[in-house]
Amino acid sequence: MKKTSILLIYTGGTIGMIEDFESKTLIPFDFEIIENLVPELKKIEVNIETISFETPIDSSDMDIISWKKMATIVKDNYENYDGFVILHGSDTMSYTASALSFMLKGINKPVILTGSQLPIGTIRTDGKENLITAIEIAAAKENGEPKVQEVCIYFENDLYRGNRTSKVNAEDFEAFNSFNYLPLAEAGVHIKYNKNKIHKRKKEAFEVFTELEENVVILKLFPGITKEVVQAIFRIEGLKGVVMETYGSGNATTKKWFLDELRIAIDKEITIFNVTQCLAGSVIQGKYETSSAFNELGIISGKDITTEAAITKMMYVLAKYKTKTQIKSKLATSLAGEMSK
Ligand code: ASP
C-alpha cells in the first residue's frame, strides 16, 4: 500500500526560533535545523516532505501576501499529498487559520496549523509533541478518507476548527481556545475524534481564492470612545468594511452622533459586521434597545464568530462578491463552519 504523504510547510514562529547571541532576542532559524532537532520525524510511518518560506517570519509579520503563499503551496501540491501541516507562530495563527479556511474553499484534505510556546531546541519544548501529533492527525484516515478535511489548529492536546479559535494565553502551553465550538479531537493516550463536530466530505469542488480586500478595519468600542475617533475610522479613504466589536450580545451606545456615523458609513456602502467583545456567546441584534437600530441600519450580525474569523471573512467576501445582497448574505451565513446557523 502507498505510504501516506504529508507536506510540512514552515513559515516561522517560536517553534523554529533560536536566541540571537548578541541581541538576546528570539529570531527564526533555518528549517533544516528543526529536522535535526526532531529525529523522531524519521521514525513516523509517513512520508514527510518539507517546504519553507524563503525567509521565515515571526507571525506578527503575517500579511495577505503570506496567506496567498500558503494557499498557493496547498493548491500546487493538493493532488500529491494526503495532508498538510503548517508550522506557524502562535501570535496570529488564528487569523491565518481563519483566512485559509475561506481561501481553500471545498477542501477535502487536512490542513493542520501548529507551533509552540518554547523553541523546539529547548529541553521543555512543547513543539515536539505539537508537531508530531499534528502530523499524525494530518495522516489519519478512515476507509481511505482523511479523518479531518478542513483547516485546523492543533495545540497542546486539542484539535480545533481553525476559524473558531483565538490565542488566549501568551505563556501557558495551552495557548488557544475555541469558546463557541468544541474541539474536533483530543489527544491523550489515543487521539479521540469528535466525529459529529468535524466537517463531512464537501460536495463542492476544491477551489483556491487568493484575492483578499485589504481596506478593512476592526473598531473596538469602549465606554468613553469619542466622536472624533469613530469618525476618523469610518472616514478612512477607500474603506470597504468594518468589523465592529460591540458589548455583550451586540450592544453599543445609542448616542445620536454614533448612530449618525453608522448611517453615513452605510450610505457610503461601507459594510459593517457586528461581533461581540465577549469570548463566548453570540450577537443577537435587537435583543436590547442598544442594538435595535442595527437591523434597520443594515448592520450585519456576526452571531458567534470570532474577531479573527470576522476580519478575514470580510477580506474574502468583499473581494469575491460584488453586490450588496451577496455580500450581506455571505457574511450572515456560515461559509466554513465559522459561525453557528
Ligand atoms: N512571536 C511568535 C510568533 O507568533 C510567538 C510564537 O510563535 O508562539 O511568531
Task: Describe the structure in your own words.
The chain is α/β, with parallel strands linked by helices and 341 residues long. Helix content is 28%, strand content 23%. α5 (227-234) runs parallel beside α6. It is globular, with a radius of gyration of 21 Å. It starts with a strand and ends in a 9-residue tail after the last helix. The structure holds aspartic acid.
Features:
single chain, alpha/beta, Rossmann fold, four-stranded parallel sheet, 20 strands, 23% strand, binds aspartic acid
Task: Note the run of SSEs as H and E.
Answer: EEEHEHEHEEHEEEEEEEEEEHEHEHEHH
Helical proportion? Answer: 25-40%
Strand order of the largest sheet: 4-1-5-7-10-11-14-15
CATH architecture field of the largest domain: 3-Layer(aba) Sandwich
User: How widely separated are the two ends?
Assistant: 41 Å
Q: What coarse outline follows from CA principal-axis ratios?
A: globular
Integer tally of domains: 2
What kind of assembly state do the chains in view correspond to? single chain
Strand content: 15-25%
**Number of contiguous helices:** 9
Which parts are unreliable, with pLDDT below 50 for 5 consecutive residues or more? Answer: none
Cα gyration radius (Å)? 21 Å
Structural class: alpha/beta
CATH class of the largest domain equals Alpha Beta
Name every ligand kind in the structure. aspartic acid
**Total strands:** 20
CATH topology assignment of the largest domain: Rossmann fold
What does the average pLDDT come to? 94
Largest sheet, if any? 8 strands, mixed
